[in-house]
């Protein structure tokens, strides 16, 4: 019993109680500490568990709301993308139409240039066949 505790040779079912002069014995036996242990500690534990539950619930609600907003934004983004693709294809269609029109005009001009060249050659042949003075 050097430290205020009974010998360890006590029967197995006995409770070892510190001696009255052992360290912290007065604090443990005080009414305030018993009240703190009886009422304050469970209240702190309850508040802590409640706060943790609130935080977890708030996180879950935030995730659900965030996912819902993300789905809405993705849907809107896809709708804008589809609308943009339609506008791009309309412009490409206009460009293809204009290019085919330009090709038709260019082809017609090429035929006219070829005809004009042929006429110029015939004229040149007629001029060359005229007698010289």
Structure described in brief:
The chain is mainly α and 133 residues long.
Residue stretches low in confidence (pLDDT < 50, at least 5 long) are none
Q: What's the mean pLDDT score? A: 86
Helices and strands: which structural class? mainly alpha
Cα(first) to Cα(last) distance is 155 Å
How many H/I helical runs?
A: 2
Task: Estimate nothing, just give the exact number of structural domains.
Answer: 1
Number of strands: 0
Beta-strand percentage range: under 5%
Shape: rod-shaped
Radius of gyration over all CA atoms, rounded: 51 Å
Order of helices and strands: HH
Task: Report the biggest beta sheet as strand number plus sense, adding barrel if it closes.
Answer: none
Proportion of residues in helical segments: over 70%
């Amino acid at each position: 019993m050097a430290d205020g505790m009974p010998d360890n040779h006590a029967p197995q079912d006995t409770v070892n109680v510190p001696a009255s002069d052992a360290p912290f014995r007065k604090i443990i036996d005080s009414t305030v500490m018993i009240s703190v242990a009886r009422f304050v500690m469970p209240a702190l534990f309850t508040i802590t568990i409640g706060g943790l539950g609130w935080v977890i619930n708030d996180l879950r609600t935030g995730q659900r709301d965030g996912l819902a907003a993300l789905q809405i934004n993705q849907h809107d983004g896809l709708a804008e993308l589809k609308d943009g693709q339609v506008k791009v294809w309309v412009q490409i269609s206009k460009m293809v139409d204009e290019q085919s029109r330009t090709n038709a005009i260019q082809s017609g001009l090429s035929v006219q240039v070829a005809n004009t060249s042929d006429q110029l050659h015939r004229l040149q042949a007629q001029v060359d066949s005229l007698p010289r003075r």
